[in-house]
Design brief:
Blueprint: E1 4-7, H1 13-22, E2 24-27, H2 37-44, E3 49-52, H3 60-65, E4 71-74, H4 84-89, E5 93-95, H5 102-117, H6 120-128, E6 149-153, H7 157-168, E7 172-176, H8 182-188, E8 191-192, H9 195-201, E9 204-207, H10 221-226, E10 232-235, H11 244-252, E11 258-261, E12 281-283, H12 292-310
Parallel strand pairs: 1-2, 1-3, 3-4, 4-5, 6-7, 6-9, 7-8, 9-10, 10-11, 11-12
Helix pairs in contact: 1-12, 5-7
Length: 321
């Protein structure tokens, strides 16, 4: 008899076929609609494994319902949507999908940096709304990227990939991380500094650190006031790293020049949120890894983690070793 798995969002056809070949699959057959909590709780009680997204909160209630659950395969690098400690206490494996999205997320991070600094979204809206009347010397002027100073908080794989792109733009590279990275310093010509020095010196502050208890509200009004008035904050990590109320204050009072955001404390962010109405914010709907190639690879890796775990082998990306 085949083992049973729950897949909480509609995958590509070849992934679904692969899973159907191995398991009895229960599928939430929607691509753009989140699985209802009630359905998740009902189905988790019947399965041996679950392939889930960041949108699903796999908390104590869900884990307790999954009495036969052996593995939680998360379609993401981060896994703060899962109570990993509690899952571990119940003997459940938790996996993620690292590595495959590094370059794609770095591309998006640098694209967001450039779009914010040169006011590309605002300029496009001006054009489309018929507000472009004449050429003017200071019309829609932004901030230079080439030769500016970039400060990266969190020099992991994605942070290093962003640094490589910044190096090509002749930028001065600074970083702050929990641990110093001498090899990357030598490769990239990037300088390790304190977080305070990074905030004070950088024209662009890029947040690329994981979301943990230690990084929650890492950036508050106190940190924002350390930044230059001409500085731009870029966040493609996790929303909870920045205190959004403080960021609104900093943006509206001219404490910093602008922000580029792909992630928010609440997702989807309410359309009436002041971060979405500020002209000096470029806001995106969490699309850091959203290329066809990368998302497909993520599905393939998440499926492989699930299969390996339920076939009695150690999955390639086990979080709770």
């Amino acid at each position: 008899m085949k083992q049973k798995v729950l897949v909480t969002r509609k995958p590509p056809e070849h992934i679904l076929q692969l899973l159907n070949d191995c398991f009895e699959v229960t599928l939430w057959d929607c691509e753009e609609e989140q699985i209802p909590r009630e359905f998740l709780l009902e189905q988790i009680a019947e399965v041996d494994g679950v392939l889930c997204l960041l949108t699903e909160h796999i908390d104590e209630e869900v884990i307790n319902k999954g009495k036969g659950l052996k593995v939680i395969s998360n379609l993401a690098v981060g896994y703060n949507n899962i109570n990993v400690e509690y899952a571990s206490s119940k003997g459940m494996m938790v996996t993620n999908t690292p590595g495959v999205l590094t370059e794609t997320t770095a591309d998006l991070t640098f694209a967001l940096l450039m779009a914010t600094s040169r006011r590309l979204v605002e300029a496009s809206d001006v054009l489309r709304e018929g507000k472009w009347k004449t050429w003017s010397p200071m019309f829609l002027t932004g901030m230079d990227v080439y030769g500016a100073t970039i400060g990266i908080i969190g020099l992991g794989e994605i942070g290093a990939a962003v640094a490589r792109r910044a190096k090509g733009f002749g930028m001065e590279l600074l970083y702050y991380s929990r641990t110093q990275k001498p090899a990357l310093e030598q490769e990239l010509g990037i300088q390790y500094v304190s977080q305070e020095e990074l905030l004070r010196r950088s024209d662009f502050v890029c947040l690329l650190t994981p979301y943990t208890k230690d990084t929650e509200n890492l950036i508050t009004l106190e940190e924002l006031k350390m930044m230059k008035k001409t500085a731009i904050l870029i966040n493609t990590a996790r929303g909870g790293i920045v205190n959004e109320d403080d960021l609104v204050t900093a943006l509206t009072e001219g404490i910093i020049w602008g922000a580029g955001l792909d992630v928010f404390a609440e997702e989807p962010i309410p359309v009436e949120h002041p971060l979405l109405t500020a002209p000096n914010v470029v806001a995106l709907p969490h699309i850091g890894s959203a290329s066809v190639q990368t998302r497909t690879k993520m599905w393939e890796l998440a499926a492989r983690n699930l299969i390996e775990a339920l076939e009695g082998r150690t999955p390639p990306h086990l979080v709770n070793k």
